[in-house]
Amino acid sequence: MNEITGFILSPKGIRARAQQIYQLAQQGKTHFEIHEHKLAEVSDFVLQVIAENYPDNNVPYHSRWRHYEVGNQSQLKQLRTIEQSLSSIERAKLGLDLILPSVLVDAGAGPDWQYSSSNSVTVGRSEGLGLASLDMFLAGGLSHNKESHRKNVETTAAGLKAVSVESFSEHFKVSKTNPLLGVEGRVQLLRSLGDAILAQPNIFPNQRPGDLVDYVLTHYQYTPTASQILTMIITFLGDIWPGRLMLDETNLGDTWFYPPLGEGAQAYVPFHKLSQWISYSVIETLANNGFTVTGVEELTGLAEYRNGGLMLDSGLISLRNPADAATLWAPGSEIIIEWRALTICLLDKIGEKIVQSLHTTAAQFPLAKVLEGGTWAAGRKLAQQKRNNLTPPLNIQSDATVF
Prior knowledge:
It is built from 16 helices and ten strands.
């Protein structure tokens, strides 16, 4: 991998390219205006939301595990029962078997889909997708191996490749009256995960996502850094993303061409939203099973529509042309790239103010906690106030592989 490819696949690259777009916005050369005088007000609002959600400031990471905590948590209890006889390493592997596919199916569900879970909770959006994916996992829907109860739930490459639109729709209770956006895109990501696992037998000798735990142990022992986890996820799972930009024979994933920055790779703007959210979720899984992951603060915020919605709905940024809010935009359009880049920069600024206000450090209260506490919840709260159906402030044409 050459230097520029490594840069684009790194948190440093995400921040650097986002900062370039931020500077263009300050010069009046983007679709947005920035109102930095509102930064303190928005940060105070986020602090208020953190205090409401976590009065003791004991905020967990913004990871997929939060979405399984809805209702009576019967599915988590079932998972814990399965884990009881396992070592911490095997628990971590089983956790990754669940987490990786679950995050991949978590792009926006749309306003009309809801999931009635096995714990008698009916919920939509991320929580519904989380519970549906957990139920599918516990039902053996991601495994081809029916030898025993435990092996029935281990995710396998063959199990992933066997997922069809029909089987996925059955598990997620999708119908004409309960429509879920991007079912085909979600199914393709799961199948592509299976392909990526099969294509790398040296990394996945047992043909399951959990094999990554052995990779971490071999290369970093029990003390990986967050950036090493992200590099691992992007490097070994990069080919699951739909073909977009390639460089140095590497799939750049959630990276987009933005012409105002020039030509070729100098105009490539990376976000790696799902890869970073997978990383946050993997980090929590490892941390709960005997690993010590450092440098979590090096990862960036997540450029998605809840955090981005916070920026627009709070007035921290605004559209130069308000009519743009009514247009349906593709993820690769300049306005969406700008929105996401400004979100990355402003999340860093809000994070700094949160850390100062809580009299802590970025290492102790990284963006993974700011998001959870936090900006994601604040974005949803404002969306509820402004648009009862919780839709984002910009219309995004989603194929379920970005947002």
